[in-house]
Amino acid sequence: MNLLVVILIQASFYALLGLGYVLIYRATRILNLAHGDLMVFGAYLFFQTLAWTDGNIYIALIVGLAGATLLGIIVYHGVMRPLAGYPVAVGVLATIALGIVLRSIVTVIWSGQTRYPSEYVGQLGPPIVLAEGISVSMIDALIIVVSAVALIGLPVLLQRASIGVDMRAVAENALLASQRRINIHRINAFSWALATVMAAIAGVFFSLKVRLGPDIWYVGLAGFAPALIGGMDSLRGVAIGAVIVAAAEVLASRFIAPQISLAAPFFVLLIALWIRPWGLDGSREELERI
Amino acid sequence: MPFLPSTLHTRYRDEIRLLDSGFTRFWCAVGIVSALILPWILSNFWTGVANQALIAIVGALALNLLMGITGQISLGHAGFLAAGAFISAALVTHFDAPLGVSLLCSLVGGAVIGVLVGLPALRLKGLYLAVSTLAAHFVIIVGLGQYQNAASDGAGFTMPSPSFFGLQIVSERQWFYVLLPISLLALLVQINWLRSAFGRAWMAIHHRDVSAEVLGVRVARYKLLAFSASTALTCFCGALGAYHTGFVSVEAFDIHLLIQYLAMVIIGGLGSVVGSVLGAVFVVAVPHVITAATAAAPFLQGLGSKVFEIQIGVFGIVMLLFLVLEPRGLAGVWARVRAYFELWPLKFRAWES
User: Fold this and answer.
1) Single pTM value for the model
2) Which of A213, B29, B166, B209 could form a disulfide with A114 if both were Cys (CB 3.0 to 4.6 A apart)?
3) B82 within 8 A of B144, measured Cβ to Cβ
4) What span, in angstroms and rounded, lies between the C-alpha atoms of A248 and A178?
5) Considering just the CA atoms, what is the radius of gyration of chain A in Å?
6) How large is the greatest C-alpha to C-alpha distance in chain B, in angstroms?
7) What is the pLDDT at residue B41?
8) Would you say residue B349 has pLDDT above 70?
9) Which of B254, B312, B257 is nearest to B138 (CA)?
10) Residue B329 — left, alpha, or beta (φ > 0 → left; ψ -120 to 50 → alpha)?
11) Nearest to B49 by CA among B311, B292, B219, B239
12) Does residue A94 contact residue A79 with C-beta atoms inside 8 Å?
């Protein structure tokens, strides 16, 4: 039972990360390998504001997320927009380069030292007891809630809100969309900003729960496993993929060896790609189009 | 007899010659002679850097063969380098294998790994292939890490200084004269592959695999062949690097190494042999130049502890700049410079040779 709760928490975290990958993929057809570094950047902004305001978590959250929004917009206009029309591989390589630039900026500014933002804000609240002997810390509960909101909210945004409809239109056919007076660069920048904010939220959670250091980009990178297993263009698939990856990781570290858990997402991913390359819930033509 | 520039070939024999013009012949000769006297000019440290560059050229050529020529994106090459290094380290540790045997085994082992990793490439394209090779990288690294823990208590393996026809290779200068022919050989082999049916098949697959199949290229076979050749060469490069460093540990083969090799082929120019060479030299030399610059310039002293991070950041920025501004890379710059001098005093050629 306890194991199930651990898997649920881990899956919620992976779902938050995976949604960011899917959003960017749907918008610009690019697998964003810099997602982990975007996550680290947001988390550091959050941490720095915490340190300056002496633990005011609300201001820190606002600054962190606003910074992430800005970063997402800059990344789109600075790197991704000039690369529109190049082969997919070029875009992916550009995100790798972007990732290492961000990582070195973070390390130069904040040094490679490991930080613990939770020192400023404590546990955020008492643990929530679910049943006899099973309790969830406040931060874990928040992860589950936020991830559930995102998993339900993003499809609603894409289906109902006018900007969501615009996003789908741009993803479907950018040329037609622009002829219907949709500002495709504004919409794509919005997608990038949204994904960067999702990454920053995941980063804030991870830094509060575990630690903060430039090396946690690796955690963010692992988030593409759930996105790919679910299908890169499917928001629903992320939930399924996250559960599979989280289960594999938790069970592997519990029953085989803790070191294995780092490679577990990728191992599951290899098997999933072998069996169903287009993802559990992705569309099959998607694969042919690339 | 009208005036004919050396770039216009009038006979087939001239057309298929490797060194097709006086310009190329002259500069190749200059390049080889200056390479031969290089270790006598450079200090021991910089000769070591040159050796690293020579090894990196082999690896960059291998990655370029797969990514630039065949168009199959691979993010697993750091893992393959590790595999090559570990194959030779294991052979030396357990069986006392001599240099030739262990290099040959890493070559063959690499070919086998290449076929295994290339199998998904028959079903996957673009992005998905990139991800599956990246996943392969992590699986290889974790597996080798487990092996390292089991076989050497996690400390890594020490490689003996190899002997080559009875001659012990110790100093960097000796290494240079061993590595130079090897790199040149790899370069020649790749150039000739590209001029042969293999190269044409690979390039056809790069442009569009369906049309390649219509043209009679066996796509599955040639994709696997490209993977196999590239991985074999990469493993060979990993084994060479292991001998040169004298030490093998799985920590050295992280994502940063992969990024360095990607930087080589991107900065050099995807699909260009000259580009891979230039890119490899650039990527290996630049960090040392940055370090030397920070050591020499007083106002940069404060950055001392952050040099490594700055190096990586500079790579990222250079990669981004090349991707956005000059996708043909250093090879594109080189082609422009070369055309300028070759055609001088003319501005451009009226025909494409």
Assistant:
1) 0.79
2) A213
3) yes
4) 43
5) 19
6) 75
7) 85
8) no
9) B254
10) left
11) B292
12) yes
For B163, the 3-state DSSP assignment is: strand
Q: What tokens does B162 get?
A: 């190899």
- Name the residue with tokens 């007076």: A181
CB-based burial, B113-147: b 16+ in 10 Å, e otherwise:
bbeebbbbbeebbbbbbbbbbbbbbbbbbbbbbbe
Residues 6 or more apart in contact with residue B337 via CB below 8 angstroms: none
Q: Which amino acid is at B206?
A: H
Residues B314 and B286 sit within 8 Å (Cβ to Cβ): yes
Please state, rounded to an integer, the average pLDDT across all residues of chain A: 85
In this complex, the residue of B124, B126, B139 whose CB is nearest that of residue A89 is B126
Measured between CA atoms, how close is A127 to chain B, in angstroms?
35
H helices of A53-137, in order, are: 57-75, 88-110, 118-121
Residue A75 three-state SS: helix
> Which residues lie below 8 Å from residue A185, measured CB to CB, with a gap of 6+?
A76, A77, A81
Q: ipTM score of the complex?
A: 0.76
DSSP A157-173: HHHHSHHHHHHHHHHH-
Residue A115 DSSP class: B
Query: Distance (Å, rounded) from C-alpha B266 to C-alpha A13?
Result: 34
In whole angstroms, give the CA distance from residue A275 to residue A277: 6
Compute the distance between CA of residue B318 and CA of residue B332 in angstroms, rounded to an integer: 15
Tokens of B106: 């890493």
| Number of A–B residue contacts, CB under 8 Å | 118
Location of structure tokens 């959003």: A23
| Regions of chain A where pLDDT drops below 50 | 288-290
Torsions phi, psi for A59 (to 5 deg): -60, -40
A100 lies within 8 A of chain B by CB: yes
Nearest in space to A170 (alpha carbons), one of A183, A154, A153: A183
User: How many whole angstroms separate alpha carbon A204 and alpha carbon A17?
Assistant: 12
On whether the CB atoms of residues A12 and A263 are closer than 8 A, the answer is no
What residue in B sits closest to A89 (Cα-Cα)? B126
- CA-CA distance, A23 to A25, in Å (whole number)? 5
**Whole-angstrom Cα Rg for chain B:** 21
Give the other-Cβ count within 10 Å of A2's Cβ.
10
Q: Does B321 touch chain A (CB under 8 A)?
A: no
**pLDDT on residue A286:** 52
Backbone angles phi, psi at A156, to 5 degrees: -65, -45
Write down how long chain B is.
353
pLDDT in tens, A39-55: 999 999 999 998 888 87
In the predicted structure, residue B285 carries a pLDDT above the cut 60: yes
Residue with tokens 């991107």: B266
What ranges do the domains of chain A cover? Answer: 2-289
Q: Give the pLDDT score at B35.
A: 84
Are the Cβ atoms of B315 and A100 closer than 8 angstroms?
A: yes
Domain residue spans of chain B: 40-253, 255-353
Q: Are B141 and B84 in contact (CB under 8 A)?
A: no
Structure tokens at B250: 């799985």
β pairing state of B247-248 and B167-168: unpaired
Confidence category of residue B302, pLDDT binned at 50, 70, 90: low
User: For B139, which of A94, A270, A273 is closest by C-beta distance?
Assistant: A270
Q: Which CATH class is domain A2-289?
A: mainly alpha
